[in-house]
Amino acid sequence: MGIEGVGARVARKEDKRFITGAGRYVDDMVVPGMKHAAFVRSPHAHAQIKKIDVKKAQGMPGVIGVLTGKELKADGIGNLICGWMIHSKDGSPMKMGAWSPLAFDRVRYVGDAVVIVVAETKGQARDAAEAVEITYKELKAVVDASKAMDKGAPQVHPEADNNLIFDWDIGNADDTAAAFNKAAHVVKMDIINNRLVPNAMEPRAALGHYDKAEDHYTCWTTSQNPHVARLVMSAFYNVAPENKLRVIAPDVGGGFGSKIYIYPEEIVCLWASKKTGVPVKWVADRTESFLTDAHGRDHHTHAEMAFDKDHRILGLKVETQANLGAYMSLFSSATPTYLYATLLSGQYNIPAIHANVKAIYTNTAPVDAYRGAGRPEATFVMERMMETAARQFGVSPAELRRKNFVTSFPHQTPVIMCYDAGDYAASLDAAMKASDYAGFAKRKAAAAKKGLLRGIGMSCYIEACGIAPSAAVGSLGAGVGLWESAEVRVNAVGTIEVLTGSHSHGQGHETTFAQLVNERFGVPLDSVSIVHGDTDKVQMGMGTYGSRSGAVGMSAIVKALDKVEAKAKKIAAHLLEADEGDIIIENGALKVAGTDKNVPWFQMALAAYTAHNLPGGMEPGLKETAFYDPSNFTFPAGCYICEVEVDPETGVTEIVQFVAADDFGNIINPMIVEGQVHGGLAQGIGQALLEGAYYDNSGQLLTASYMDYTMPRAGDLPSFKISTSNTPCPGNPLGIKGCGEAGAIGSPPAVINAITDAIGSNDLAMPASPSTVWAAIRATKH
Amino acid sequence: MSDVSLMVNGKRVSGAAEDRTLLVHFLRENLGLTGTHVGCDTSQCGACVVHVDGKAVKSCTMLAVQASGSTVLTIEGLANGADLHPVQAAFKEHHGLQCGFCTPGMIMTATDMISRHPEGLDEATVRAELDGNICRCTGYHNIVKAILAASKTMKGSKGKAKQAA
User: Fold this and answer.
1) Which residues have CB under 8 Å from A64's CB, separation 6+?
2) Which CATH code is given to the segment(s) A420-463+635-782?
3) Mutation site, A15, A293, A685, interface B, largest B CB count within 10 A
4) CATH number for the domain formed by residue range(s) A31-139+202-253+259-292
5) What is the C-alpha to C-alpha distance for residues A407 and A403, in angstroms, rounded to an integer?
6) Which end of chain A, N or C, is more open, meaning fewer C-beta atoms within 10 Å of its C-beta?
7) Domain boundary assignment for chain B
8) How far out from the chain centre does Cα A322 lie?
9) DSSP string, A353-381
10) Which residue of A has its CA nearest to B32?
11) Does B165 score more than 50 pLDDT?
């Protein structure tokens, strides 16, 4: 490792623009002639649109256009789709209802877009939006998935009887039933995973520009995957063919999954730009974000786990209802199925598993992947069950887990996944040591003297990242392949550009990807530029989600670097009149091993482009492209231990210690990895203690601003004690597993296990707000 | 429409704004100072914090006309030419930012916080004083670390300046 190479704690190259106010987000973009859009949205959770009157709005100051769903349909713009086909256990395909980018006959959730107004200023657009008169016939709404399948419940889409989108299962029901028949102990729980709002700090935004002269569209958008956005907008929404549509995702202020999807607004802004003849910019306000960004989680689960007399797990049965909201968002069907139930083996040897998932429409915002996406829900089920089992059996929660750990690899679970490498006991031991687990009893006694209830809880999580082999996900219903692309351009002066299909929205790719190049060629970080986020510059790529930029995105770069290195060595060997096999790259030069003969990197690059003296038959230039398709998922895993003090008088919980011990495989930049863990932990602790999206029975979102939805603030969180161990991933050239989601996946059960340990009641819902905890304490006393 | 004139980052600027225009929109749209961000509608997130007459203010809580006649410092005016302000440098060194969207507001809040606590800062104080700034990426861990480090650096440099005087 050099000072800027793989493994070095390098400060980020991209920071300078962000700390000086020079970042360029979509809302910062100005195009000549640009005008502003506001959307008129449904105030009702469920209603028929009887009439839309835009006359008054059209006459308002500054108004350029007021456009409706009927006009959009007339222009052939398509419906939004879910890109992952799930079949129910009876073999029938999922029941996807129509989702028009602008609703024209019916609205299905509060926030459903109905009309777009384009005006000279944002203020004028909003004024005119208020003047659009829409007559609705209100219909009964259903917001709770557990009630949506009841007889007589409001029907959200005609395509999905009883609001059931699919009834899917995985694993083996017979084997699992047999396992339960021979069980000595059975643990049963009902578990709710609370609905969350992702809340990237930059609200979603879109700037659509139709260039009449070129008959070409450009869309600046807050996207984690601009190429996928272009593909979907071309192939399914008929906005424009791919060669006539450029999508640019510049600096993006956080995503957490919510910016993977293609939403109505970017489609409508592009279409409206052509209709009105002006570039159209829309920026969500925070309440629009709350109402219309895809939400996360919202599972109701019943789980049962069978153990033998020695407390070894025999089988697991899981029944889950997943609320997908009013429309199927782009990957909404994959999240509660292949990203959830395939992780229900946890870190454990479980001979038989059967899981059944029902996906359900309700009159709420669409639900899709949010940091962790299915894996936090699986981990919450598994780790609440393990802790509860340990309490039920009166054994150590750590030892019950250890007894059931998978210890030999590869390990095939009964739910598709084949774990490739791991050392779960190492993480458990590291976390127990760092948390002084053995000294907890003393600390509990000291807290009791202060009148506080102290508790400790752990969570041993596993996740599947780096999604994933294209053929495998294709066989499971994915509409796209999940490879990644890279192009490495060595310039004539030896500087290097790496063009990647991954997209950075906080992950630090401009630094870590450059570190990889530095490690290989010794080129200083300043001479390496990472180019991403623009479909005109970068060839097709799949983007960033599922902790895939390291394991998949960087693996593609490695493949391209391999090709560059091979050609560079050929050129150097020719220049040095040496054998190609004797050339090594060291300290910025290509050398003949064991001699002082060398050619500096930049001189070799220049030779490639002057082409005056290249090996016979070699093409000039030095630029290589690679596509990398992973051979398996990767499996980060770890152990988190949370220690809390609860004030029994107020129900207020303070996290007094939080320890994370993760195995992410090899690491490029430890500083950036630590930052990813910190952020994930904050979101997971937020879910456990503070965050919850609540609708009232009529479908109004009660938590639609930062006044109502409790975001974790600095004072809500402790400093974290984190460490990593390393079993390199055997499936990719860098041995990387991924680290982006672990914190959010592993932490909620650790927090809830700690609080329930403290208060002596196992019945506690998330978020464990003071009133919830207080009520749970009171319930134990009656 | 009203006339608004301000001293922004050491330069005198003026322009016409609708009465309802917020200071943050005047800075972003009239002056093109897009480093100040809008992250919410309820003055909760702090992405828009600037200094008005030397005090940290959420620029979404103030009308542009209200600010007329004031001296405003935004994130763009914090560094001394190519030299980063110690708080900017500390955010970089300690990885106190990821997506960068909340960062300008965090840094402007932090510089104000440090100047109001010449005695120095501890972790509990920093966490309490960050109550008005939301970050979704960092879990605050490294932001707190960066502010504590910058506070130390600035205290040290002030001490040296005093000694030199």
Assistant:
1) A35, A118, A119, A120, A276, A278
2) 3.30.365.10
3) A15
4) 3.90.1170.50
5) 10
6) C
7) 2-77, 86-158
8) 17
9) EEEEEEEEE-SS--B---TTTTHHHHHHH
10) A28
11) no
Contacts of B134 in chain A (CB under 8 A): 201, 706, 711, 713
Alpha-carbon torsion, ordered A728, A731, A735, A737, to 10 deg? -80
Q: Tell if the CB–CB gap between B138 and A682 is shorter than 8 Å.
A: yes
CATH number among 1.20.1440.60, 3.40.50.300, 3.10.20.30, 3.30.420.10, domain B2-77: 3.10.20.30
* Residues of chain B contacting residue A17, judged by C-beta atoms under 8 Å apart: 100
Residue with tokens 């713009």: A77
Domain ranges of chain A: 31-139+202-253+259-292, 142-193+295-394, 420-463+635-782, 483-628
List, edge to edge, every strand of the sheet that includes A47-53: A106-107, A47-53, A133-138
CATH (residue range A142-193+295-394) = 3.30.365.10
Per-residue pLDDT reduced to its tens digit, A396-433: 999 999 999 999 999 999 999 999 999 999 999 999 99
- Which candidate, A745, A618, A645, A167, places its Cα nearest to that of A445? A645
Query: Is the fold of A420-463+635-782 the same as that of A483-628?
Result: yes
Which CATH architecture does the domain made up of B86-158 adopt?
A: Orthogonal Bundle (1.10)
Cβ-proximal residues to A636 (8 Å cutoff; 6+ apart), any chain: A462, A463, A465, A547, A662, A663, A664, A665, A737, A738, A739, A742
Q: In chain B, which residue ranges form alpha helices assigned H by DSSP? A: 23-25, 64-67, 86-93, 103-116, 123-129, 141-164
Q: Is the pLDDT of residue A199 over 70?
A: yes
Put simply, the answer to whether A201 touches B47 (Cβ < 8 Å) is yes
User: Which residues contact residue A616 at a Cβ distance below 8 angstroms, ignoring those fewer than 6 apart?
Assistant: none
Rounded Cα distance, A503 and A510, in Å: 10
Let me know: does A248 contact A229? Beta carbons within 8 Å: no
Q: Do residues A187 and A302 lie in contact, with contact meaning Cβ atoms separated by under 8 Å?
A: no
Q: Residue A763 contacts by C-beta under 8 Å, 6 or more apart in sequence?
A: A756, A776, A779
The C-alpha of B121 sits at a distance from chain A's nearest C-alpha, in angstroms, of: 15
A483-628: in CATH 3.30.365.10: yes
Of B39, B91, B133, the CB nearest to A19: B91
Distance between CA atoms of residues A196 and A287, nearest Å: 14
Question: Any residues with CB less than 8 A from the CB of A576 and at least 6 apart, and which?
Answer: A583, A590, A592, A597, A598, A599
pLDDT in tens, A595-608: 999 999 999 999 99
| pLDDT (tens digit per residue) in A541-584 | 999 999 999 999 999 999 999 999 999 999 999 999 999 999 99
